[in-house]
């Protein structure tokens, strides 16, 4: 079975729960008192997708403003970006839109974008309507889910959706009998933001 | 033949603990799926105890930024992490060594390295831990004891907005690890980002490094840094020399992950190219620890050449001081350039033309021209007379009166020349040259290994109730006698005065360093065998036959042994230490209760 390394970065405002999403995905745990990330932290997890192993090299970036300029190091070469906002903070959704713009201008051309509305367990304090976010995600052909790292809702699903949208390995495409999938891959990639 | 411990060659003692899973040559990154996924990537039990900044300190002492201040001159602008300690003297050294000498142009980006003496004796709280990780490293890759390396990425570009008209800055990694290629690759990732994005960048990089696994020989290490994953394997002393360790997988993207095939090997062919007719003589000079100076047009060239010289006798460790880049501001400048004594056993790399005069009296001088014009083949076959070296404008070449002991190997020269004509890739030329040096060094060292192994006492002379037997003394004449039958002629077709070469080598610091290391290993082996023999004894029975005083004495001795085994990490069979502990407890239990109380107290270190 072929192993593919897929670089994935998490972007978004400070405190929206990027690190918590990664911890839930990789370690299946949750710590409410997590420290703010410095620069970025790195974790890996390997999952099987069809007959490939996807090793996610996850760069969980710092949301704090002083690390803003470092972001290109993490989205450079990324196969996917998960942009996270907090459904209880309208402002974090505005930041998200700026990230989408930046990726469109400077990110890798075929990057798969996933939008995660985190903290969906706090729907009482909701400021961003699910429909608004969904419509926006659709308009840029991004994956969209509302997640809760705390209650383990939709965390694995984000990564499964990313795996589905990752184009098949180019080098294998030409020689093996996977040609029919290449067609689908082309249409998939058009649905990404860039 | 591999250069391993004396156990390899001697028949007196059994094989040491088995060394399987150490042979990890040629592992493709795709094979290491089982890597732990946690933040540390490598959660050994001993690593779980590490505190913040411990992992960082296992790799680097600190990171410095050296800039140019119009009033102060060169100055250390930033030290990161902020709590790292450097003495004023060390800072001054770093300042001068991090910039090229003024008149070597170096526009654009330049990488080089330097080495300087550690100013104050700084005890690392990690000391013992690092010693264990270092134990399996080959001699030439062990952590430095009294020196630091400085790995420099220097940028000099025109900038009209600055008063000086130029932007000049160096990012410098200070470390005790001699992983030249690794740190240069690391700087290639870090420095350009740093020059653009300043301190948050250093903060992020240091934070990444502080989650790295410690530099443990033999493991494949995954080292995430600033959005890229570097994969390396630090060789062990059990590796078959000359084998490459990691292979880059075909379709990997350098913005995602990088596999470094080596952490320390420099491109020997490129470095020796300007003087390659003389490689064998240079090998002799380095082997014998002769005073050597490399005069080069830039710090990059001087440091590359010095490192190539030092590594050409690998797997022997070069035991004298060497300075890949040395300046007139260096704290050892006076000590090394004095004319009142014979030049010291050191290798210096210099760029300042002033040295052509200062070091005129040195016996061996290598002059390197501008390597950018290397398209032209080095033509001077002849060694130059020293008196012809007067100024910086002197022609490239080797200036010495030295007469090599061994006859020149024309084959290697022809082979390399042919490679140049056929435009053989540089990597292939480098591999040929590296193998040539390796075989030469091994042919030279094997007779010594064999003789030293014969100094090991017979296994049957080890008695549990006597102190471990001593190694027999190294007697030069005895060794020389072995050469007749078992000399280098067995593995090398080179003719010449091998005896003379050995005689001189035995007086050199390299022999001293090598022998001291061997003796330590063998003494530890004897201690280990002795300990194992002791553990096999029926102590209970012995205790019954002896008085209380003698039993107490035995307990104390056993406890000493235990402490030693743990402190020195003696190469004992697995389970031996546990067995010894059980023995101690059993003997104590056989004593009266009042004594038990006293003896059970954990011994204070």
From TrEMBL, chain A:
Any one Gene Ontology molecular-function term assigned to this protein's record: GTP binding
Membrane topology note: Lipid-anchor
Subcellular location: Cytoplasmic vesicle, Phagosome membrane; Early endosome
SMART domains recorded: RAB (SM00175), RAN (SM00176), RAS (SM00173), RHO (SM00174)
InterPro entries in the cross-refs: P-loop_NTPase (IPR027417), Small_GTP-bd (IPR005225), Small_GTPase (IPR001806)
Keywords per UniProt: Cytoplasmic vesicle, Endosome, GTP-binding, Lipoprotein, Membrane, Nucleotide-binding, Prenylation
Keyword rRNA processing: no
Pfam families per record: Ras
Principal place of residence: membrane
GO cellular component, one term: phagocytic vesicle membrane
Gene3D superfamilies per the UniProt record, alphabetical: P-loop containing nucleotide triphosphate hydrolases (3.40.50.300)
CDD domains assigned: Rab5_related (cd01860)
Family: Belongs to the small GTPase superfamily. Rab family.
Designated name of the protein: Ras-related protein Rab-22A
Source species: Pogonophryne albipinna
Phylogenetic classification of the source organism: Eukaryota, Metazoa, Chordata, Craniata, Vertebrata
UniProtKB/TrEMBL annotation, chain B:
Gene Ontology MF terms in the entry: guanyl-nucleotide exchange factor activity
Domain UDENN as annotated: residue spans: 61-525
Region (Disordered): 1-47
PROSITE patterns, sorted: DENN
InterPro entries cross-referenced by the UniProt entry: ABL9/DENND6_dom (IPR018307), DENND6 (IPR024224), Tripartite_DENN (IPR037516)
GO CC terms of this entry: recycling endosome
Comp. bias intervals (Acidic residues): 8-23
Family, similarity comment: Belongs to the DENND6 family.
PANTHER family in the cross-refs: LD41638P (PTHR13677), PROTEIN DENND6A (PTHR13677:SF1)
Protein name: UDENN domain-containing protein
Species whose genome carries this gene: Champsocephalus gunnari
């Amino acid at each position: 079975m072929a192993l593919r390394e897929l670089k994935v970065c998490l972007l978004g405002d400070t405190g929206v729960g990027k690190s918590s999403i990664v911890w839930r995905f990789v370690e299946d745990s949750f710590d409410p008192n997590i420290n703010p990330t410095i620069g970025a932290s790195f974790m890996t997890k390997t999952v099987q997708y069809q007959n490939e192993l996807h090793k996610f090299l996850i760069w969980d970036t710092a949301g704090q403003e002083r690390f803003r300029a470092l972001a290109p190091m993490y989205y450079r070469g990324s196969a996917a970006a998960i942009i996270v906002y907090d459904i209880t903070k309208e402002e974090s959704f505005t930041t998200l839109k700026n990230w989408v713009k930046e990726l469109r201008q400077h990110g890798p051309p075929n990057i798969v974008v996933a939008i995660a509305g985190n903290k969906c367990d706090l729907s009482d304090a909701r400021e961003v309507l699910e429909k608004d976010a969904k419509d926006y995600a659709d308009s840029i052909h991004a994956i969209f889910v509302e997640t809760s790292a705390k209650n383990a809702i939709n965390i694995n699903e984000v990564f499964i959706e990313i795996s589905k949208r990752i184009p098949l390995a180019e080098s294998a495409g030409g020689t093996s009998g996977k040609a029919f999938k290449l067609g689908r891959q082309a249409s998939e990639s058009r649905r990404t933001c860039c | 033949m591999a250069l391993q411990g004396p156990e390899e060659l001697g028949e007196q003692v059994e094989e040491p603990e088995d060394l399987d899973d150490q042979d990890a040559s040629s592992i493709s990154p795709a094979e290491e799926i089982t890597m732990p996924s946690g933040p540390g990537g490598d959660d050994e039990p001993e690593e779980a105890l590490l505190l913040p900044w411990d992992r960082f300190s296992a790799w680097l002492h600190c990171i410095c930024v050296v800039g140019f201040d119009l009033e102060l001159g060169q100055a250390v602008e930033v030290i990161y992490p902020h709590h790292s300690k450097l003495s004023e003297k060390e800072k001054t050294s770093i300042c001068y060594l991090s910039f090229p000498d003024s008149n070597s142009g170096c526009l654009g980006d330049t990488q080089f390295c330097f080495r300087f003496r550690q100013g104050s004796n700084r005890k690392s709280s990690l000391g013992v831990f690092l010693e264990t990780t270092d134990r399996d490293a080959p001699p030439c890759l062990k952590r430095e004891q009294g020196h630091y390396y400085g790995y420099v990425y220097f940028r000099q570009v025109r900038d009209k907005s600055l008063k000086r008209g130029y932007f000049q800055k160096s990012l410098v990694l200070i470390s005790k690890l001699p992983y030249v290629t690794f740190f240069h690759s690391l700087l290639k990732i870090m420095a350009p980002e740093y020059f653009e994005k300043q301190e948050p960048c250093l903060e992020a990089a240091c934070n990444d490094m502080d989650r790295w696994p410690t530099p443990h020989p033999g493991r494949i290490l995954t080292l995430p840094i600033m959005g890229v994953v570097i994969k390396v394997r630090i060789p062990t002393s059990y590796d078959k020399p000359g084998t490459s360790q990691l292979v880059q997988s075909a379709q990997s993207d350098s913005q995602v992950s990088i596999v470094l095939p080596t952490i320390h090997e420099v491109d020997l062919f490129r470095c020796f190219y300007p003087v390659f007719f003389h490689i064998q003589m240079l090998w002799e000079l380095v082997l014998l620890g002769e005073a050597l100076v490399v005069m080069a047009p830039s710090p990059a060239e001087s440091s590359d050449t010095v490192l190539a010289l030092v590594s050409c006798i690998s797997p022997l460790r070069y035991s004298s001081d060497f300075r890949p880049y040395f300046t007139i501001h260096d704290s050892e400048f006076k000590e090394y350039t004095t004319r009142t004594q014979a030049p010291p056993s050191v290798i210096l790399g210099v760029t300042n033309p002033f040295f052509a005069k200062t070091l005129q009296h040195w016996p061996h001088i290598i002059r390197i021209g501008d390597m950018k014009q290397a398209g032209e083949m080095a033509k001077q076959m002849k060694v130059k007379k020293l008196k012809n070296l007067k100024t910086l404008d002197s022609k490239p070449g080797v200036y010495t009166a030295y007469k090599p002991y061994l006859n020149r190997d024309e084959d290697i020269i022809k082979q390399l020349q042919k490679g140049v004509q056929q435009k053989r890739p540089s990597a292939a030329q480098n591999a040929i040259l590296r193998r040539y040096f390796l075989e030469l060094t091994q042919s030279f060292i094997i007779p010594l290994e064999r003789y030293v192994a014969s100094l090991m006492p017979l296994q049957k002379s080890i008695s549990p109730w006597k102190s471990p037997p001593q190694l027999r003394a190294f007697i030069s004449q005895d060794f020389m006698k072995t050469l007749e039958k078992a000399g280098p002629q067995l593995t090398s077709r080179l003719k010449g005065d091998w005896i003379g070469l050995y005689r001189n080598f035995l007086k050199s610091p390299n022999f001293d360093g090598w022998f001291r290391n061997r003796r330590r290993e063998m003494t530890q082996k004897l201690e280990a065998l002795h300990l194992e023999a002791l553990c096999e004894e029926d102590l209970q029975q012995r205790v019954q036959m002896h008085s209380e005083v003698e039993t107490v004495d035995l307990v104390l001795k056993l406890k000493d042994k235990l402490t030693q085994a743990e402190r020195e990490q003696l190469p004992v069979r697995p389970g031996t230490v546990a067995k010894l502990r059980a023995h101690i407890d059993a003997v104590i239990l056989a004593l009266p209760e009042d004594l038990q109380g006293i003896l059970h107290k954990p011994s204070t270190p």
